[in-house]
Write a structure and sequence with these properties.
Blueprint lengths: L4 E3 L2 E3 L5 H13 L4 E6 L1 H9 L1 H8 L3 E4 L2 H9 L10 H15 L3 E5 L2 H14 L5 E5 L6 H10 L4 E5 L4 H8 L8 E4 L3 H6 L7 H5 L3 H8 L1 H29 L1
Parallel strand pairs: 3-4, 3-8, 5-6, 5-7, 7-8
Antiparallel strand pairs: 1-2
Helix pairs in contact: 1-5, 2-3, 2-12, 4-12, 11-12
Organism: Sporolactobacillus kofuensis
InterPro entries: WecG_TagA_CpsF
Protein name: WecB/TagA/CpsF family glycosyltransferase
């Protein structure tokens, strides 16, 4: 496993580029090694500060990648340099290209029946020859039944889009029985793939302003998360750093 670096209460990977992680992902699956892959933004960080179980789940991830400008700046306070934004919405398509190349099959879990089925069809159109071997909504009461369905599909890669912290907790508590080699918490990727939610224009993504675009689309829901949440995140990051510094 690639060494992780401390950012407050969490330990993250610092891959310099998306391609470097894509290469690792490919090598791991070619060697039939399993991995739990999560992405961390400042919203997820805030949740982890209030939920010790979730904090532990994130630290048990095989790979925890940086998502967004907030995490990048927060990591810098801790002396960790994160060059490229490794958000899942941009990285997952690169992984799906590898799935096509190596004939690895994919299973989608999350959102509503209509959205996840639409996402499955759209991905097969976007990535010709991609094997999507199943799709299930994210509203269920029995992990066991869903895990059995996933395993029966013989999927190599499982994409779980149920939102933080549900998606990571589902993967973590079922890690020993899930058979797909790669289990990836993908956040809103299934919604984006279905066309239900638009992505920010490319220029805004390059400028790390996708959060602003989403807030414009959903101001009531996203205002507290982005404005108040950013402030809470940096306050916590700085407080934790000062606490550690005082002990040294």
């Amino acid at each position: 496993m690639v060494e992780k670096k401390q950012v407050g209460t969490l330990y993250m990977n610092d891959f310099r580029t998306k391609q470097s992680f894509v290469d690792l992902f490919t090598n791991k699956l070619m060697s039939h090694q399993t991995m739990n892959l999560y992405f961390l933004n400042d919203h997820g960080y805030n949740i982890a500060q209030k939920d010790p179980d979730y904090n532990a789940v994130l630290n048990r991830a095989d790979y925890l990648l940086n998502d967004g400008i907030g995490i990048k700046l927060g990591a810098k306070i801790w002396g960790v340099t994160l060059d490229e934004n490794l958000n899942g919405t941009d990285l997952i398509p690169l992984l799906l290209h590898k799935c096509v190349e190596h004939q690895w099959s994919v299973y989608l879990l999350g959102s509503s029946d209509t959205i996840v089925q639409t996402a499955a069809r759209n991905l097969q159109t976007q990535f010709p020859n991609l094997k999507v071997v199943g799709a299930h909504n994210g509203y269920f009461t029995s992990d066991q039944e869903v895990v059995e369905t996933i395993n029966y599909s013989n999927a190599d890669v499982l994409l779980v889009g149920m939102g933080m912290p549900l998606q990571e907790k589902f993967i973590d508590r079922n890690s020993s029985v899930l058979e797909p080699m790669a289990r990836v918490a993908v956040g809103g990727f299934i919604d984006f793939a279905s066309g239900t939610k638009p992505r920010a224009p490319k220029l805004m993504r390059l400028l790390n302003l996708e959060w602003l675009f989403r807030m414009a689309l959903e101001p009531r829901r996203m205002w507290k998360r982005n404005v108040v949440g950013h402030a809470q995140f940096f306050t916590k990051i700085i407080w934790l750093k000062r606490k550690v510094s005082r002990k040294q």
